[in-house]
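Why should sequence recovery work at all? Because a backbone constrains its sequence more than one might expect. Tight turns favour small or flexible residues, buried strands favour hydrophobic ones, and helices have their own preferences. The token representation captures these environments compactly. In the example below, the structure is given first.
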């Protein structure tokens, strides 16, 4: 959603690229805009069904991706945890993959992730993450969802987002 992105983020919709801006530009603040991190929500919200998308991270060393409730806090420093309405997977400074639990669940992976699959089953209350190249399961959150959920991206230095194969049922 363009009105949720932080001011220093430029979206290149036609190429599915999301990159931090390297130039100064003016974007009005609004209550929906994240203001302290390179974060944004996807444009399509989900209140039912099963959905899948993929994110290419390649050599990015800092990122957080997953799902967020529509009502997540957007001002100030926010911890992307289920208690705050986020179900995420992250890479911290190229060193450690973690599921966004409290405390964080450290994931031991045999190889670096280049493409991450995110699967949401709203009715069953599941958010699952996969290595999209091998379809190896990484982590699953179980929750009861009560409001609209959106794809969530905290870019760090995330390279690009791909449309993936959506499963809408």
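From this structural description, the recovered sequence reads:
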């Amino acid at each position: 959603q363009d009105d949720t992105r932080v001011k220093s983020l430029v979206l290149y919709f036609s190429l599915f690229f999301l990159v931090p801006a390297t130039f100064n530009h003016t974007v009005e603040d609004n209550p929906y805009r994240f203001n302290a991190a390179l974060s944004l929500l996807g444009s399509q919200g989900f209140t039912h069904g099963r959905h899948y998308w993929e994110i290419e991270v390649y050599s990015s060393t800092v990122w957080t991706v997953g799902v967020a409730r529509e009502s997540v806090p957007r001002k100030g420093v926010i911890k992307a945890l289920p208690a705050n309405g986020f179900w995420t997977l992250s890479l911290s400074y190229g060193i450690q993959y973690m599921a966004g639990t409290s405390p964080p669940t450290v994931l031991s992976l045999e190889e670096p992730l280049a493409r991450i699959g995110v699967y949401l089953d709203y009715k069953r209350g599941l958010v699952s993450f996969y290595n999209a190249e091998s379809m190896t399961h990484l982590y699953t959150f179980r929750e009861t969802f009560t409001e609209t959920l959106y794809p969530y991206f905290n870019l760090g230095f995330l390279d690009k987002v791909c449309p993936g194969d959506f499963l809408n049922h």
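A few observations help interpret the result. Residues 41-162 form a domain with the Jelly Rolls fold (CATH 2.60.120.920).
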